[in-house]
Design a protein that fits this description.
globular, nine-stranded mixed beta sheet, about 290 residues, alpha+beta
Length: about 290
C-alpha cells in the first residue's frame, strides 16, 4: 500500500476491526455510485473527545435528512474504542466515520432494503499549530448544491473549490452566493467589523459547524456583540478581522482575501480573534 504512513493501522467496517488493506465495500455501494452517504470528524484533545455529543447530534440530523435508517447509538462506544486501540490514545487525534446507504442495484430512486455501510477509524492530527498560522484565501462563487446543511460524502464541488485555492498558492476558498458569503470550502467564516462579529445564520446554505457553535457561545459569554447575518461581498474592504473555524482548522485568522485576482482585504490578527483563540484553547486543553 503506497503512502502507508498516512493510513490508519486499522478501521472498523460494518461489524469488525480490520487492516485497511483487508477492508472492502461492494462496487454497488451507493456511496461509490452516488456519494449517497454522510460523514463526521470528531477531535480528541490529548485522547479526550471535544463536543462529542454535538458531533453525534449532527450525525443523527444528517441521517434523518437523508432518510438513512441506521442505529447511531452504537457510534459513541466505537469512537472511543477507535482512539483507545490506537498507538496515540493519549495524544491529539480525530475520529472519522462514514455511513452510506449501503449496497443496492444502481438506480436513482432510493431502495427500501439497502443495509447501511459503516466505516470508522482514528487518525493522528496536530491540533496545536493553529494559533499563529495566518491563512491567505481567495473568494469565488458558491456552486454547491442547496443542502449544505447535510454533511454529505458527495463533496465534488467543495473539493474543486478547495483545489482551486491550493493550486493557486492559497489556503482556502471563501464562497459567496447572491452577493453574500456562505462559508469556506471546508470552514465556517466569521467577520469582525466595528467590534461586531458576523457569521452566516443556520440554514440549508451552510453546514452547522460545531466549532461555529463554540464561537457563538464564547461571544455570548465574553459579551462580544454577534450577529448571525449573511455578510455582503461588497462589505469586504471595510472588515477589520476575518477568522475561519472548523474541527481541525479550529480558529484560524485570515491575513488576506483575493477576489477576481485583486487583493481586497489584508489584516494582522485582531484582538477579537486573539481573545477567541485563547478562550478556545482553555476549553479544549483544560
Amino acid at each position: 500500500m503506497k503512502n502507508k504512513k498516512f493510513y490508519p493501522a486499522e478501521v472498523f467496517l460494518n461489524d469488525k476491526w480490520k487492516k485497511p488493506e483487508d477492508a472492502f465495500v461492494s462496487v454497488f455501494d451507493r456511496s461509490f455510485m452516488f456519494g449517497d452517504g454522510i460523514y463526521e470528524v470528531t477531535p480528541f484533545y490529548s485522547g479526550k473527545p471535544f463536543r462529542l455529543q454535538d458531533h453525534l447530534a449532527r450525525v443523527r440530523y444528517c441521517l434523518k435528512e437523508m432518510n438513512i435508517d441506521f442505529d447511531a447509538s452504537i457510534l459513541e462506544k466505537l469512537m472511543l474504542e477507535a482512539v483507545r486501540r490506537s498507538s496515540f490514545s493519549s495524544e491529539d487525534a480525530a475520529v472519522y466515520l462514514q455511513i452510506s446507504r449501503g449496497k443496492a442495484p444502481r438506480s436513482h430512486f432510493i431502495p427500501e432494503d439497502a443495509e447501511p455501510t459503516l466505516l470508522l477509524y482514528a487518525f493522528r492530527v496536530d491540533l496545536t499549530n493553529f494559533k499563529d498560522r495566518f491563512w491567505k484565501v481567495i473568494a469565488s462563487e458558491d456552486l454547491r448544491w442547496h443542502r449544505c446543511d447535510i454533511k454529505s460524502t458527495a463533496l465534488l464541488a467543495n473539493t474543486m473549490a478547495n483545489d482551486a485555492a491550493i493550486s493557486a498558492g492559497y489556503d482556502e476558498n471563501l464562497l459567496f452566493r447572491n452577493g453574500v458569503f456562505t462559508e469556506g470550502s471546508h470552514t465556517t467564516i466569521f467577520f469582525v467589523k466595528n467590534g461586531v462579529v458576523y457569521t452566516h445564520p443556520e440554514g440549508r446554505q451552510i453546514l452547522s459547524g460545531i466549532t461555529r457553535k463554540v464561537m457563538i457561545d464564547l461571544c455570548r459569554e465574553l459579551e462580544i456583540p454577534l450577529k448571525e447575518e449573511a455578510f455582503p461581498v461588497a462589505g469586504l474592504p471595510d472588515v477589520d478581522e476575518i477568522f475561519l473555524t472548523g474541527t481541525t482548522t479550529q480558529v484560524a485568522p485570515v491575513s488576506s482575501v483575493t477576489l477576481e485576482g485583486k487583493e481586497v482585504f489584508t489584516s494582522q490578527k485582531g484582538e477579537i480573534t486573539r481573545l477567541l483563540q485563547e478562550e478556545f484553547i482553555k476549553r479544549t486543553r483544560r
